Amino acid sequence: MEIGDCYVGWATDEDIRTRGASGGLVTAMLAAALEKGLVEAVVVLKKLGEFEAVPVVTSDPEEVKAAAGSMHSVPIVLSRYLEYGTKVALPAKPCDARSTIEQAKRGQVDIDTTYIVGLNCGGTMHPAMTRKMLETVYKLDPEEIAGEEIDKGKLIFETKDGKEHAIKIDELEEEGYGRRESCQYCAVNIPTMADIACGNWGVIGDLAGKGTFVEINTEKGIAILENAIDAGAVEITPADDKGKVIRAKVDGAMMKVAAAANEKYLAPIEGSHLDYYMNALKDCIHCGACKTVCPVCACGETAKCTEFSSAADTYKMSLFHLVRFVHLMDSCIGCGQCTDVCPADIPLTHIYQRFAVPMQEEFEYKPGMDMTTPPFFGVDLIEEGH
Amino acid sequence: MAEATGTTGTEEWQPKIVMFCCNWCSYGGADSAGMGRFQMPPTVRVIRVMCSGRMDPVFILNAFLEGADGVIFSGCHIGDCHYVSGNYKATIKYKFLKAMVNELGLEDERLKLDWISASEGERYAQVVTEFTEQIKKVGPSPLKPEGVI
Ligand SMILES: Cc1cc2nc3c(=O)[nH]c(=O)nc-3n(C[C@H](O)[C@H](O)[C@H](O)COP(=O)(O)OP(=O)(O)OC[C@H]3O[C@@H](n4cnc5c(N)ncnc54)[C@H](O)[C@@H]3O)c2cc1C
Ligand code: SF4
Ligand code: SF4
Ligand code: SF4
Ligand code: FES
């Protein structure tokens, strides 16, 4: 097995295979990593309901197996739950993987002991929005939902009576439902920065829906897949060329859609920028939630943005946000966590991206894509020989 | 610091400028300007930092929030920093801050980085004079809190 190889694989255990999103390869691989001692812990989403899950760090393979399946309405980034030095594996959407790498660059995560099992990602939805959408657009009772999947551009809900209800995602998004805004303009669909990238794109023929396409990106990727094969937990077959082409095509099409969304949501501000930002941030109650969830922020409890700022000192604008605008210019990956948690409904991701993207473009620094470029002003200092 | 003596009439609006000077060069430059009795407007409040590399974006942002109409930060010329590379670091922080201040919608003219050595008293006065003129043109900062002049 070599870096760059592509396979289609599935879990040998029938229960995992059927409950998994596309053959259960990821679940089987994570569970085998625990069982064989490759890692001490795995981060997974513990399902609480159809639209609710909490991240858990577990050493119990059964808990990993119970977490099989993709949850499209749980937009939680898992990288915050990694602990330095623990041998750990995590399933990772591009935003999970990219933030893991940004944390590693800042010494918060030990990349050598962290196995990033990448998941392709076309987007996630906010759970509260999902419920509202079910009631108003699908005319379904959220409590009656038994399952959900995305297929051929449609968002399909299965109700407990076994019926399927499909609506095109484009149509949903035109009405303000569907994927979170940040996911609509997120242009990274295949986690090339993860140790191994898994997804259902490119699985064709008899295996469609029953197998997971995997691309090996690193030595760690080889280790975690070979470990699962040795344990008898997964089987693989080389991916055929047609599958690879289809996967690349879908990825390209999705990137175009993301670029269009980017132009729509991040169109230049008309009129005074200062008025726009003052107005956008005027409802901030300084709860700090947006900082707490930010998966690329490497500060702990005591951070510059919180220590030097208080609501009482906020005359025309909050220093908390001004500091964070600068601090996140090189690292904001547009994951959407801040917007999701803001009790004042401030479109924070949108705002932070406005500051970050132009700088990232100027420095040609795309955060979280590899371990080789150092963060912030490290880039220039190294070039200048300091 | 150097006593600034120049006045430009009582009725004309005088901007408030916060200037961060590094201990080893620019602060010395301010002293030289005073000793050389170079004329400059009394618009600047100098804050001494050990090195321009110590400049934290939080200082500058806070200066604006507290009512500064303009902020200068200055240090030793490139190659002369007493801590070797502090001013390189300052340059990069400045780049980020400048981009941030521009996106925020504050006028570009309100933030300036300049290198002033301890012997450049005349240049110090010139930087202060020119920057003051520049700020007068753009007027009071829109971030100035109510009630602060
Ligand atoms: C939100 C989302 C969107 C996706 N979109 C695409 C796509 O557009 N194209 C594509 O090819 N593949 C996509 N995938 C990947 C695909 O759905 C499968 O996860 C992948 O093919 C692996 O299948 P599996 O059966 O091996 O995984 P499983 O064995 O089902 O394991 C899935 C693992 O992912 C974890 N997980 C589930 N939901 C999340 C979540 N929201 N965030 C983080 N971890 C989670 C579970 O805890 C579990 O460990 C997406 C996955 C997710 C989670
Ligand atoms: S931000 Fe990107 S990677 Fe993260 S959930 Fe949304 S689409 Fe997926
Ligand atoms: S600022 Fe918001 S969008 Fe950017 S990385 Fe942090 S949580 Fe994600
Ligand atoms: S989550 Fe919202 S209200 Fe809380 S500090 Fe952040 S912006 Fe302000
Ligand atoms: S000591 Fe003057 S810039 Fe570093």
Task: Describe the 3D structure.
The complex is a heterodimer of chains A (386) and B (149). Chain A is an alpha/beta fold and 386 residues long. Chain A has 3 domains: 6-123 and 185-257, 3-Layer(aba) Sandwich (Aspartate Aminotransferase, domain 2), CATH 3.40.640; 127-178, Roll (Nuclear Transport Factor 2, Chain: A); 273-381, Fumarate Reductase Iron-sulfur Protein, Chain B, domain 2 (Orthogonal Bundle), CATH 1.10.1060. Helix content of chain A is 39%, strand content 17%. Chain A contains 16 helices and 11 strands. Chain A has helices spanning 14-19, 25-35, 61-66, 94-105, 127-138, 169-174, 181-185, 219-230, 241-265, 273-281, 289-293, 304-307, 319-327, 337-341, 348-362, 378-384, and strands at residues 6-11, 41-49, 52-58, 88-92, 114-119, 145-151, 154-159, 164-168, 196-199, 212-216, 234-238. In chain A, the strands form 2 sheets. Chain A has an 8-stranded mixed β-sheet with strand order 3-2-4-5-9-10-1-11. In chain A, helix 4 (94-105) links the parallel strand 4 (88-92) and strand 5 (114-119). In chain A, helix 2 crosses helix 8. Chain A starts with 5 loop residues before the first strand and ends with a helix. The mean pLDDT of chain A is 92. Chain B has 149 residues and is of the alpha/beta class. Chain B has a single domain, classed as 3-Layer(aba) Sandwich (Rossmann fold), CATH 3.40.50.960. Chain B has 4 helices and 4 strands, in the order E-H-E-H-E-H-E-H. Chain B has helices at residues 26-35, 57-65, 86-104, 121-138, and strands spanning 17-22, 44-49, 70-75, 111-115. Chain B has a 4-stranded parallel β-sheet, sandwiched between helices. In chain B, strand 3 (70-75), helix 3 and strand 4 form a beta-alpha-beta unit. In chain B, helix 1 crosses helix 4. Chain B starts with 16 loop residues before the first strand and ends in an 11-residue tail after the last helix. Mean pLDDT of chain B is 91; it is low at 1-7. Chain A binds chain B through residues 272-277, 304, 308, 313-317, 319, 322-323, 325-327, 329-330, 354-355, 358-359, 362, 376-377, 380-381, 384, 386, and chain B through 56-58, 61-62, 65-66, 84-85, 88-89, 91-93, 96-97, 99-100, 103-106, 142-146. The site of one iron/sulfur cluster (SF4) has 14 residues of chain A, from helix 14 and helix 15.
